[in-house]
Amino acid sequence: MPPINGTILQAFHWDTPDDGTLWVETAGNAAALGRAGFTALWLPPPCKGEGGSRDVGYGSYDLFDLGEFDQKGTVRTKYGTRADLEDAVRAVHDAGMQVYVDAVLNHKGGADATDPVMATPVSNDNRNIVVGPAREIDAWTRFTFPGRGTVHSAFQWSADHFDSVDFDQRTGERAIFRLRDKAFETPVDPERGNFDYLMFADLDSGHPDVRDELHAWGDWIVRTLAVDGFRFDAVKHIRFPFFNDWLDHVRFGAGGRSLFAVGEYFSGDVATLRWFIEQTGRRMSLFDFPLRYNMRDISHGGGLLDMRQVLTGTLVAQDPVLAVTFVDNHDTWQQNRRDEGIAEWFRPLAYALILLREGGYPCVFYPDYYGGGGRPSLRPVLDVLLAARRDHAYGLQTDYFDDPNVVGWTRAGDADHPRSMAVLLSDGPGGSKRMWTGRPGATFTDATRAIGGTVTAGSDGIGEFSCAAGSVSVWLQT
Questions:
Q1: pTM
Q2: Superfamily for 8-105+208-391?
Q3: Edge-to-edge strand order for the sheet containing 113-122?
């Protein structure tokens, strides 16, 4: 069979229940997800977090504990045990899909003890500005992993391996402290003067011991789980050349496998995203936050914003090969942060934009597929869009972005997928467009069933397709 269009499922969300069943659930759902048209699952950080079983995974404590050791008050992680995780990965691979693991390499939290260390407080608004004299503090920087010992790795972390923290245990003061004679790393995002520091104890990625340990972990996690790629957390806060070195090392150690990589660079400025891509030698993709912000704004615009501009200033428009497109994720939608999300009525339109166009590598959000976190499931319409992506979204794309409220495009198909498709969506009144399909005399029906009847293309391959107000229609050749 010919290869199908790739589609990622973010297989978790911030409010995933703390019951240790996600890995078991993932294994049980894998076959159905593969049949639906997904080709890869993005799994949450599988390592033990500083919050134990409550930790979503971004409070990284022990990279080598996948739910195997009694640490932070629990053996399992929020998502299950190591054995459950390994079963889930096998099931995903058996279903013909890839596995991408979330890697949190910016910081560590939940240290086992403090270190006395000289430190200099700096401004939170501009980390290049010193706001007090250097003094000795007690920093939570000693990681000895008493529950794991030397299994998998004998390395122990101390203040030498970090460049900054945000708490002095000795005085109880919360501030950003630059440790010893360390400098904040460059290049990183220039927000706040230098955005190296984000949270917890910030890794000194230039230290040779840190470099070697993170290389060892990369080799170990690829070997242990046979993962196919990584989603990197907080890449704007990590010295950019680190990723060049780390990816080259781990890919070489994996026998030259390509190992997909995507970074979370939380910025709506496409020029900034392209700068990072250049700095990392095009070794990794980035999530298209500018597109997501455009869709969010339109969804709350009451039909007054221009749909023709939805792709303006986006990564998928400027560098579609390295754009991972998405509607929402665990950062933009949490149960207590609903105002950050794309409006519910617009989500089917947003998914049509990322799933049925030729550019980008789309990622579907778990609550949008299954429901959860206060968000209703869109599975009926998503299954329609996924099937259309799998079977029809190929070949020449012709755009009809000629109206501020109604936009559309067609895909003419290719030799392996000969049936074409026409898509229309509106953020205001419904409408219709005459669009070229490349299939003279072909008949089309709306797979969403929002519009009944059929459309037959003329001898010139052009048909008149329509969509309802505030809706999307996907006209597929029958």
A1: 0.96
A2: Glycosidases (3.20.20.80)
A3: 107-108, 201-203, 162-168, 173-179, 113-122, 135-142
